[in-house]
Structures are given as C-alpha cells and as structure tokens.
Amino acid sequence: MKVSYVGFIDVVRAEFYSYIRFYKNNRAFLFAAFIWPYLMMMLLLGLGYLFGDPRVYAERLGVRSPVLYVVSASTVAMSSVFIIDEVAGYTLYNRWNGTLPYLILVPMPLSKRLLSASIPSVLLSPAISVASALPVAVYIEGLRGFVLVASLYAAIILGMLPLAGLSVIVAGLVLTTREESNIASSLAPFMLLVSGVFYPVTILPRVLQGVSVVVPVRYVVDIAKSLASTTGAGQLYAAIYALTLMAFAYNLLTVPLLSGVEARVRIHGFE
Amino acid sequence: MVGGGCYGALSSSSAIIARGLVKRYVTYERKGFLRRVKKTVEALRGVDLETRWGEVFGLLGPNGAGKTTTVKILSTLLLPDDGWARVAGYDVVNEYIEVRRRIGVVLSVERGFFWKLTGRENLRYFAMLRGLRGAELEKRVDEVLRLVSLTELGAADKLYEEYSLGMKARLALARALVHDPPILILDEPTLGLDPPSARRIRELIVRLAREEGKAVLVTTHNMYEAELICDRVAVIAKGRIIAMGSPEELKSLIAKEVPVIVRFSSRGKLVEAPSLEAKLRRELGVEKFSLSVDGEGRNVLRVLARSGEEEETIARVVGLLSGLGYRVRSIEVAKPSLEDVFIALTGGEER
C-alpha cells in the first residue's frame, strides 16, 4: 500500500498525455482544428474588405501585407479561442463529463492543479493553429512567411501565458457559480472584441479601449502587426514587455483567488 | 454497539473515524418571477462511525439518507458544518491533501472518464495524476486492468464510449486502486450492474480487505449485497446513524419479528404503491413493510410480523390484496435478513 505524492510535472505530463491521445483517437476533430483558422481568415478578410480595398485596409492597420496580417491575426484569434475554451472550460467540461471530482481529488491545491493543467493547452493549441497557417504563409511570402509564423508562435506562447492565468481564474469561478456556461462562452468573444483582431482598437469606444489594455490578446495582435509591418521595433518590445508583466501578474493572482474558490467549493459542493 | 448512540473510544486500529458530522445545504426555491426563498436542508445530523483496517464497512440507507454526503466529506470533497472526521489518522478539513494521498474513491460507476480515450489510456492518465511514472506506471496499470478482468474481457484497449455499464464499473474500481491506496471509499459500486458483474466487483472488494488489509467503506441500498460482503454495517436514515454492528448483531435486533414475503401479480393493472402502502398502514395497522418488484416482474410485499402472529398477519394481508383485485402467487415465511432490519429501523421508508 502506498501514499501517492504528486508534483506539478506529473500533472503536466498527464494533461499532455490525455491531450495527445484525444487528438490521436479523434482524427476528425484534429482535421477540424486545422480548418478553423482558415474559416477565421475568411471572416477577417470579409471584415477587412468592409474598410474598402485591401490597400486601404493595410493602411488603416499599418501593415505591409494585409493577407499576411490576416493569416497571423487569425492564428492569434484561433489560439486565443482554443485556450480560453480549453482552460476556462476545463472545470465545466469535466463537470459535465463526471471527471471533476476525481481531478479535485488529486492531492494538490486547486490553483496548482489548474495552472499545471493549462500548460499543454498553452503549448499545443497554438501549435495546431500555427501548423495550420504555415502553408499559406509560406505560399505567399516564402521563407519570410515561415520565419514570420515561427516568430508568431513564440509570441503567441508568450501571450497565452497571461491568458491562461486569466482563464484559470475563470475556471475556478466556474466551480462556484451555477451560470458556468454563460461565463465560459462569453469570455472568448469579448476577448476577441477588445483585442483588435477584427478591427483596430482605436475605433472601439473609450471604455473598451481601456479594457483592452489589460487583455493579453491585444498585445499578441500588436506583435502580429509588427511582424507583418514595416514599422519599427518599438511596438514589438512594448507588447513583449506588457505580456511578460501580465504573465506574472495573472498567474500569481490565481493562487490566492483559487484558494478562496477551493474553500468555497468544499463548503457548497462542486455539482 | 448496536442500535445507535456512542460507539466506544477511538482506537489505533481505526481507518476512518467520524464524530458528530453535520452538513446543511442551502437551496433557493423560486416563488414568483423575482422572489426566491432560502431553504436549509439538513443532510447529516450528527453522523458517528468508525471503520477498521482489513474490514468491509457498509453504509446502508434509503435514497436521500445522507450516504453520499458522508462519502463526500470523508473523501475531502465537502466540508462538514460541524463535527470532525479523520481518515488514516488525518483530519479531512485541515489535512485534506494527506487524506487524498491515502484514499481511492468511486463516486459513480456510470461516468467519470474521458469518452474518446480507451480504458487503458484513461487509467494511465489517472495513474499519472497520482504520481506514477515509467515502468512502474505500466506495470500497475496492467495489474489493475487484469485484477478487474478488463484485460480478460478484451476491453482494456476499447474506447470508453464503447463500454457497457459493467465494464465502466470495473474501470472505476481500477482507478480507485491504481495507486494502491490503503483506504477505499466506494459509493454504490455495483449500482445498475448485471448479476455477474456485480458478483465480480463484490468478490474483489472482499479480497482487497481480507488479503491486502485495506479498509473499505462501501455505501449501498442493496441489503443482500451488504449482508454478503460487509463485516460491519451502519444504517443511516434522515442524516443519522440509527444502528451499527455486524449483520448478525443487527439481525438480532428483530429477533421478535418474522419476515413474511407475499408475491402477487396485478392482473395487468399497475400497482398504485402509495395507495396500497396507505391501506396497509391504515386498515391493517402494518408499519414495517417494503414493496418492490422482483426479477420476474411480480410485486413483492415484505412484511415484518410479530413472532407468533404470522398466520394472522398473512390472512389480513392476503384478504386486503384480494379485495383490491390482486392475485396472490406465493407466501413465504423467511429467516430475518438485513433487509428486514432495514425495514424495521426505517419503517419501510422508500428506497
């Protein structure tokens, strides 16, 4: 008879394992995951043409190649949607699945448990979106397109770290509320709305512009713009700085917040 | 100690001890469009219990008696509002991580796994979440899959979505065992299973306690099962333990009563259980009985008659049933079972 000791790495390994096995056993789902970024590209292109012809769109956004920007932006958007869906929806999905109590029973505090569970999503979801966008980027820009997408992957990972922290907080809140699906499902559209993926942040109402300052996806979009534009490196460095800061802030914030959530969940139950 | 009250001093041989557990749930009932009325439901009203190493301990009770709430508190998923409990010597409130390290839990056999993963993949995932790695992980997963006969059934590498209920129950038990915990907490582990699957699970539970010395707490409302596998049982009703002891000790509580089993058919019409129950209580003054349907679709009325008054009770019951248009198929005077104890203690409360 043994006493089980579980570390952060054990949970990360377990989540990687289930993530990979899920896609391996669901080829159709994997195929759909590759197609979605293209659907998003079509949506973005459609929105772009609302501004006029592609040159006007490029000028407004301040990018050199509008198509390349659309490829990058759709990759950012899809990665964000995946992460929010997977991390914020983690507790909700497991509640529906009946696996939640067994995940709560892992001998580890809830904050650590949810943070470690988010890591495979942070790394693998953008990888799927980036792999999906790569052929188009290489077709349009050749080697430059490849470099751009590879750089974008690094930027997305950096951007997804704070987003995962935010999503973990939402995942925790989902446990304490009965309106869980409303919270989880409204998060992704809101994040995309204020991130500047669909149109420049500058045309948003002032309040939403203010909110967008604390939304990590906005800075990933800024990085995507920098990579697809001829502008200087200032915007790029500012975005990287903001994301690094947010990654620390949001992830550190999860610990005290989720300790409170865990206590509340144990008082009221999680179902 | 039988029949409620205090269960003696604490001893080091105890795997689980609970004293005075109280749990209240607050619910809100909607009254009109905007108004909600707060309602407090007392699920546990001071539960005391103690289980030992190497023992299968049964927690019996009707639906809503507080079995699952007790299980959730002991497995650290819920906090009690009052009272305390120690599992493997650790407090379930403050030392919950230590408790979780030492327990294997089955909460529902119907679900609780990933549908698009195979049984083996699911088990590997949960084993990793318990800190198992490499060769040890593979060895242990193989071991438990064999132990619960999923390998034998050729189901280990099937997707969970293709599993029958029996296979799901076996996998649920395999997950509880994968990290080889000293204490198992099993909430209705055979619920809904076909007889062969239920028997297999029961045999395994007994073996784990006898041969490996694990402490097993199992909840059930299947009296036959409890009598078969449990060394000691506690009967819980309305949030209180009303009796505790070995099945034989509990049966001695109803030494002055004789179970009479009347099987009857209803000639195509449905048995209106509430109305029949009301008539038994009102017209015959029978308080201790249960009404169920057996495997052949016949209605089974189990009545506890006073010793020496069996014949009179049979005559009155048969008269009532015939008067209501039911056809009596068989009458049997049986030996007392745990089910009769349960009927006697809970007054035939719906199960």
Describe the structure.
The complex is a heterodimer of chains A (271) and B (351). Chain A has 12 helices and no strands. With 271 residues, chain A is mainly alpha-helical. Chain A has one domain (8-268). Chain A starts with 7 loop residues before the first helix and ends with a helix. The mean pLDDT of chain A is 81. Chain B has 351 residues and is of the alpha/beta class. Chain B has 11 helices and 14 strands. In chain B, the strands form 3 sheets. In chain B, strands 6-7-8-3-9-10 form a 6-stranded mixed sheet, sandwiched between helices. In chain B, strands 2-1-4-5 form a 4-stranded antiparallel sheet. In chain B, strands 12-13-11-14 form a 4-stranded antiparallel sheet, sandwiched between helices. In chain B, a hairpin with a 2-residue loop joins strand 9 (232-237) and strand 10. Residues 1-11 of chain B have low confidence and may be disordered. The A-B interface holds A 1-7, 10-11, 13-14, 17-18, 21-22, 25-26, 97-99, 101-109, 263, 266-270 and B 25-26, 72, 75-79, 96-98, 100-103, 105, 107-108, 110-118, 121, 124-126, 128-133, 159, 175, 179-182, 212-214.
Task: Give a brief rundown of this model.
Chain A is an all-alpha fold. Chain A is 81% helix and 0% strand.
Features:
heterodimer, A: 271 residues, mainly alpha, 12 helices, 0% strand, B: 351 residues, alpha/beta, six-stranded mixed beta sheet, four-stranded antiparallel beta sheet, 11 helices, 14 strands, 33% helix, 30% strand, disordered N terminus
Number of strands of chain A: 0
Helix segment count of chain A?
Answer: 12
Task: Give me the oligomer status.
Answer: heterodimer
The rounded distance between the terminal residues' Cα atoms of chain A is 31 Å
Number of domains of chain A: 1
Share of helix among residues of chain A? Answer: over 70%
Indicate the proportion of strand residues of chain B: 25-35%
Order of helices and strands of chain B: EEEHEEHEHHHEHEHEEHEHEEHEH
Summing up helix and strand content along with how strands pair, one would put the structural category of chain A as mainly alpha
The secondary-structure class of chain B comes to alpha/beta
Query: pLDDT average of chain B, as an integer?
Result: 87
Task: Going across the biggest sheet of chain B, name each strand in turn.
Answer: 6-7-8-3-9-10
Radius of gyration of chain A: 19 Å
**Total helical segments of chain B:** 11
Spell the H/E element sequence of chain A.
Answer: HHHHHHHHHHHH
